[in-house]
Amino acid sequence: MSQPATKYLLIQPGERICTRYECVPSYLQSQLIPNAKCFIDNDENGVIIDQQIEKHDLSIHYHLVQLNEGVELATIAPDKRYMSACISGFIENTSPVPMKMMLGKKEVNTQNGGTDTATMVTEKEFVVNFHVNLHLGYAKYLKDDYPIFKTLNTREADITKQPCPSIPYRLNEVNYQIMHRIRSCKLIGEVADVFFRRSALDFYFTYLRYLKAPAPLMLMEQHRQQLREIANFIIHHPSETTDKEDLCDRFHVATEFLEAPFEQEFLIPVEDLILQEKMAMAFNLITETSHTLSHIASIVKYNSWEELRMVFEKYYKTNIAELRSAQ
Hints:
The chain is an alpha+beta fold. The protein has 2 domains: about 5-210, no CATH class; about 215-325, Homeodomain-like (Arc Repressor Mutant, subunit A), CATH 1.10.10.60. The chain is about 35% helix and about 25% strand. Strands 2, 3, 4, 6, 7 and 8 form a 6-stranded antiparallel beta sheet that branches. Strand 2 and strand 3 (about 45-55) form a beta hairpin. This is AraC-type DNA-binding protein.
């Protein structure tokens, strides 16, 4: 019996030659991240679009995978110096957090000697795989600024010496939103570097909280749904969210409901999610508009531009004036 055809997904591929923009099929060009290196594996078995944003310590890998019928996918894990946090449409895909998409390829048929033409659109299903990889050798340098990295054994740059939970890391509204921001980002240069680094950290923080999470609480589905409603409100209305107490009043829930249950569901404390979404909104306003800092501060509900500047510069490890001048 013959073996099924296989395509290989490389999580830490090393040195390869990038695919030039003009060599990317036109129906896939809208999916490109301008600041990423792009590699395309396109053959009779399907298509893999591999986009990478690499730094010394953290790297982002956004894959779109289309497999032809009967073809299997084999994932080649990075070597033991890297620890990967991954969400995959091959494992989870729901309408609130879709990890699959249909992309159409237009084909023009010419008939009757070129006088008649007909355009057909052939749609194919692409599955999203998203990874943020940590080079474990750098974890010891990150723990001073970000104590959550103490979750890891920072003395050992070896994945076999790190925590290994028995339950899987799951897709949720928060890590999906971070991924969505990354794949939708059209920034380039130094501004993009600042954005992608903090976004990679935000994603990896959820994975580190997963590694140290206590035994899970048993939550009824109606309570999980209410938590999702609250998280979605924070994500989609960051300017309307001030603090945990405001959310308790708005959704008529007890403070305790937004503590352990919320963090278990989304791998982030509610206060951190409020800050994360406000900072993402502020970043867009600072880099993509000409609004004054005072106006931006009022939009994201800070008392003054000085307060916003202090919080923003600590969060992104950058200077607002330099960020605006680099646009």
